[in-house]
Design goal:
Elements (H helix, E strand, L loop, with lengths): L7 H12 L43 H19 L14 E11 L3 E13 L5 E8 L4 E23 L2 E28 L5 E5 L4 E5 L2 E6 L7 H13 L1 H28 L4 H4 L4
Antiparallel strand pairs: 1-2, 2-4, 3-4, 4-5, 5-6, 5-7, 5-8
Amino acid sequence: MDYFKALLLAVALVSCLTFSHSAPQSNKQGNKEKQAKQGGSGKLHTLPLPSYIGKGCNPNLPQNEFNKCVVKKGQPAIEKISAGDPQYRVPKLDPFTIPSLIIDQGTKQVGMKMACTNCQLRGLKYTKFVAARADLKKRHVEWDFKLDKVLFTGQYKVSGQVLLLPLFGSGFANISLTGVKFTFVYDFDVVKKENGREYVELKEGSKLTFGAESMKIRLENLFNGDKLLGENMNTILNENWKDLLREIGPAVGDALASVFRNTLSSVAQLVPYDVLFPTK
C-alpha cells in the first residue's frame, strides 16, 4: 500500500517554499554533500522555480502568513505536476508505478510478509494541501494533506497470518482507500556548496503518518485459488480493515517517508536557496 509514493513533485516543490522561511546557514567544514552535476563539467546544475509556482514565498513574512503562502503556492503545484516533471527529476504521479514494495510486519494481530510488483497508484492528482507548519529555529516542518480516494492495484504475494488466521497466496490485488489524511514531517539544514550557493539539505528521520475513513481490499487467488477460503478471507480482511491498517500503517509510513525524503532531496539539489526565495 505504498500509496503516496510520492505526491512527489507537489511535495518536492512545495517543500522548497517551506525551506525559505529561515535565514540560511553555511554547512560545517568537512560535510559531504551530494551534488547534481551538469554534463561532465563538474559544475552544480541550477534551475529556477517552475512557472506554475512563480515567485516563492518571502522568507521575511510572519510565520503564519508564510505557512498560508506555502499552501497557496503548493496546491496549484500538486495539480500541475501530477503528470511528472523530468526537469526536476520527478516521475509521473498519476498513475504512479511502484516497481517493488515489501511489507514485513510481525505483531500479535498481523504477522505477514507481503510483496507487490508493478503496483499502480491512482488518484494522487486530487490531493489537497491542507496546512503547513514550520518551527523556524529548529528547522522543523510539518505538512497536512487529504485525499478523497486513492486506488492501489498490482501483483501481490503474501504469507503469514491476519487476526491469528493463516494467510497465503499470490495474484492481483485491488485496494481502495477513502477519506485519506496524512502528515509528512521532516527537518532540514541550509548548506553552502562548492559553487558558493546555498541549498536545502534534508536530515534523516523524516516521518509520514496517515489514516483513512474506509478501506476496501480484494486479493485474488488466495490459498492457491481456493474460492471458498479466498472469499472468506477477503470478507474477514474487509470487516477488520481498521485493525489491519493500524498494524501495517507504521511500516508503510516509514517506507513512504523515505520516498518523500529522497524526492525532496533531488529537487533541493537543483534550485539554490536564493532562487527559491528572493527577499526582494
